[in-house]
């Protein structure tokens, strides 16, 4: 609008272009899975719709609660009395309610939920794949999780992992977090090799994997509903818990006391996603999400020794690093690894490096939209270079880049003879090269971006 100086005379305001780089959010996970409901205005209107939530209460309002599901207890008699030998299933089939709660308990903030069906729906590769696919519509998402994937058949799990990794690689702005399907078992060399094989062989830098499953402080919802619980005694007899209340009140009371100490186990990745959000908010995306204490966890389902940890962390043949969750006396349960699946890749071995690079690339790409409407000339290239340099200086000051001075911490190139040919300029192509000295692996990583001028 014109600005009047005095009657009959006005000065036309010339719009200014904001050339500063604004950092994009870095820890916005999408949880893909089955929910009790998916309703905002009407039943089912949120089905396969990425929906942003900021609290567990909001999740419950839109996607419902957890319901009682069949639970089988195998008991055995010992000199000390009757003890619980095993629980079936190991993980709840209705996992999302527990998972979202654990995410927020560990410092998670905003996230997206994609409901792929209700609790009566069959768990299928097709439904989870559809859920992954629709997340591409939301540019804000930076992490992908499908915790129920560990319940799929091995071939379906492998196919879903490959699809999630390919989507993360294609979009170049997110990572996938996985769990080993045998997260409740002690891994022999052969079983570890089998689980590694499930993780595919391509785009490994776009994902990270965690082991073992974690026993949480959340109680099974089924424990409140005796008619959903069956009990096997070591005499071979199986009965409903509700029937025992009449047939054997003394045994019923013993089992009730065992139920009071029965806690839900979950894949570790959901807690890790919350910890990543907390680390990003308090320290920055460049801080490795490791040596972080997890909340709401009683203990890992499997105790990991230093030797086992080393076998998880490195693999000379496949390079697929698995991040351990370990419990330490006096220090609690902690994330004890910060590697992507690309454990043999010197450039993209670390989660923090991969995520920092993605953040820088996405932030620069989005913030330089103004440049596509400018002439593809030296003046525009200089403004681009200056904007990116100022952004990287701010990251260096925060400790994201390792060097004594900005000159040693990064470089930015954009211009004829350095990143562009005369033919590139003629076609309106602006190439930008960014080199950053990241903390890990303590050497320069190179990012290459391309803009297309509308004035070509």
TrEMBL record:
Family per similarity comment: Belongs to the myoviridae tail sheath protein family.
InterPro entries for this protein: Phage_sheath_subtilisin, Tail_sheath_C, Tail_sheath_structural
A matching Pfam family: Phage_sheath_1
Protein name: Phage tail sheath family protein
Residue ranges annotated for the Tail sheath protein C-terminal domain, each copy included: 345-450
Domain Tail sheath protein subtilisin-like: 247-341
């Amino acid at each position: 609008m014109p600005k009047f100086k005095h009657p009959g005379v006005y000065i036309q305001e010339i719009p200014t272009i904001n050339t500063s780089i604004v950092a994009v959010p870095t820890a916005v996970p999408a949880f893909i899975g089955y929910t009790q409901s998916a309703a905002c205005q009407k039943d089912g209107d949120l089905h396969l719709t990425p929906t942003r939530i900021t609290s567990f209460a909001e999740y419950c309002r839109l996607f419902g609660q957890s319901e009682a599901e069949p639970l089988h207890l195998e008991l055995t008699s010992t000199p000390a009395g009757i003890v619980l030998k095993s629980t079936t299933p190991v993980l709840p089939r209705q996992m999302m309610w527990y998972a979202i709660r654990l995410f927020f308990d560990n410092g998670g903030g905003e996230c997206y939920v994609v409901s792929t069906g209700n609790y009566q729906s069959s768990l299928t590769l097709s439904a989870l794949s559809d859920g992954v696919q629709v997340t591409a519509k939301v540019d804000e998402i930076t992490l992908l999780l499908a915790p129920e994937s560990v319940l799929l058949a091995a071939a379906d799990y492998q196919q879903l992992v490959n699809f999630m990794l390919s989507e993360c690689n294609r979009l170049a702005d997110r990572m996938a977090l996985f769990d080993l399907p045998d997260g409740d078992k002690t891994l022999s060399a052969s079983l570890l090799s089998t689980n590694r094989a499930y993780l595919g062989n391509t785009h490994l830098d776009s994902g990270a994997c965690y082991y073992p499953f974690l026993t949480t402080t959340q109680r099974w919802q089924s424990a409140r509903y005796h008619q959903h619980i069956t009990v096997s005694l070591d005499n071979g007899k199986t009965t409903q818990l509700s029937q025992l209340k009449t047939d054997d009140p003394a045994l019923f009371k013993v089992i009730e006391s065992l139920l009071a100490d029965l806690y839900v186990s979950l894949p570790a990745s959901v807690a890790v996603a919350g910890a990543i959000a907390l680390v990003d908010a308090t320290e920055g995306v460049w801080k490795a999400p490791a040596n972080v204490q997890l909340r709401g966890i009683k203990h890992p389902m499997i105790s990991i020794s230093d030797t086992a940890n080393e076998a998880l962390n490195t693999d000379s043949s496949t390079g697929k690093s698995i991040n351990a969750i370990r419990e330490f006396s006096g220090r609690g349960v902690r994330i004890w690894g910060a590697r992507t699946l690309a454990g043999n890749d010197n450039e993209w071995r670390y989660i923090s490096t991969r995520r920092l690079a993605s953040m820088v690339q996405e932030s620069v790409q989005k913030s330089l939209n103004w440049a596509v409407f400018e002439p593809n000339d030296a003046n525009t290239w200089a403004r681009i270079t200056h904007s990116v340099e100022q952004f990287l200086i701010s990251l260096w000051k925060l400790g994201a880049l390792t060097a004594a001075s900005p000159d040693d911490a990064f470089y930015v190139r954009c211009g004829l003879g350095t990143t562009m040919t005369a033919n590139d300029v003629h076609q309106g192509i602006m190439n930008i090269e960014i080199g950053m000295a990241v903390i890990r692996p303590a050497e320069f990583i190179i990012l290459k971006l391309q803009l297309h001028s509308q004035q070509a």
